[in-house]
Amino acid sequence: MTVAYVDLADFVAIAAAATGLDPFTIMRVANLDLADSALGKAVGGAFRIAVFVLILVLAGSGERGALLVAGAIVFSTTYLYEARVTLDELHTGERPVR
To answer: pTM for the whole thing?
Structure first.
């Protein structure tokens, strides 16, 4: 089984589709440095949720159901994966307990 992770280009494409703005405008006005660093970190959870809510609010009512299902799958998968990796790192001593 192959897992494809969401990257910065995916976020820009989703935001463009949901807002109707072209991707170049989104890349120019958004703070993508923060978005890029948040993609792989648990700290980015709040950012992910804020972006998802923004996309959900800006989407048409016909797309909201599918977006909610996709969001639930993405968030569940992401947080379960991050939790497993963190627990493995704590168990092996790669990550110090704070």
So the answer is: 0.43
Residue 72: predicted pLDDT: 83
Cβ neighbour number for residue 9 with a 10 Å cutoff: 10
- Give me the number of domains the chain comprises: 1
Residues 98, 88: Cα–Cα separation, whole Å:
15
Range of the domain at 14: 8-92
Residue 98 lies in a domain: no
Question: What pLDDT digit, counting tens, does each position of 57-75 carry?
Answer: 888 888 888 888 888 888 8
How long is the chain? 98
Helix (H) or strand (E) holding 44: none
Q: Note whether residue 40 is domain-resident.
A: yes
